[in-house]
Amino acid sequence: MAVETPLCAFGWQAPDFNLPGIDGRPWSLQQVRGAKGSLIMFICNHCPYVQAVAERLVRDARELQGLGIGVAAIMSNDTTAYPEDSFDNMKLFAARHGFSFPYLFDESQQVARAYDAVCTPDFFGFDAGLGLQYRGRLDASGKQAGPADARRDLFEAMRGVAETGSGPVEQVASMGCSIKWRQL
Predict the structure, then answer these.
(1) Any signal peptide, and if so, which residues (predicted)?
(2) Residues 100-127: pLDDT tens digits?
(3) Which one, out of 54, 75, 122, 149, has a CA that is 20 to 30 A from the CA of 46?
């Protein structure tokens, strides 16, 4: 079942984290933070919505990094129920798609809960002061990649954040697979 993200709560402060990366080192919010803003993405390996946009996501992240936006992806799914999202498979997924940003494992799911992440992909775009400016979609893609000339919603929003410190007032919610929460 597809889930949509809530609307942007402008100015909401990014919760800190310290998570293991697939590169073997721990990463905190301060370490991924960019001089002009930060993009924190909740993704996973198996979700068809993430798979449909992986190449575009990597392209946009790389370009945003060039504009001073720090980027990190976090995987928070229950890997017991969804072994395709395991740490080892995260390494393979990142290598296959050429990630230029840290891919972090939120095994406890506490970071996803702190961010109130609801789906994969779920994008949180912050200004230089770590205030939320964007909570929308990458582009018009769904389970299949959209047209090659689709408007780059996330990229345009975060470029605006890098240039002005503000995100767009009009934002279209991201849609994807629900976060796979562990049964308590």
Answers:
(1) none
(2) 999 999 999 999 999 999 999 999 999 9
(3) 149
CB 37 within 8 A of CB 128: yes
Tell me, yes or no, whether 183 lies in a domain.
no
What DSSP designation does 174 have?
P
Tell me which H or E stretch contains 148: none
Query: Once rounded to an integer, what is the mean pLDDT over residues 12-40?
Result: 98
Q: What is the pLDDT of residues 82-94, one digit of tens each?
A: 999 999 999 999 9
pLDDT at 1 over 70: no
Residue tagged 């954040």 (tokens): 161
Number of domains in the chain: 1
Measured CA to CA, the distance from residue 155 to residue 60 in angstroms comes to 6
pLDDT at residue 9 tops 90: no
Residue 83 lies in a domain: yes
Report the run of H or E that residue 117 belongs to, with start and end: none
Encoded amino acid at 129, one letter: G
- CATH number reported for the structural domain that contains residue 64 in this entry: 3.40.30.10
Contact of 16 with 32, CB cutoff 8 Å: no
Find residue 74's DSSP bridge partners. Answer: 42, 104
Q: Cα–Cα distance between 167 and 123 in angstroms, integer?
A: 13
Query: Residue 130 is part of which domain span?
Result: 2-178
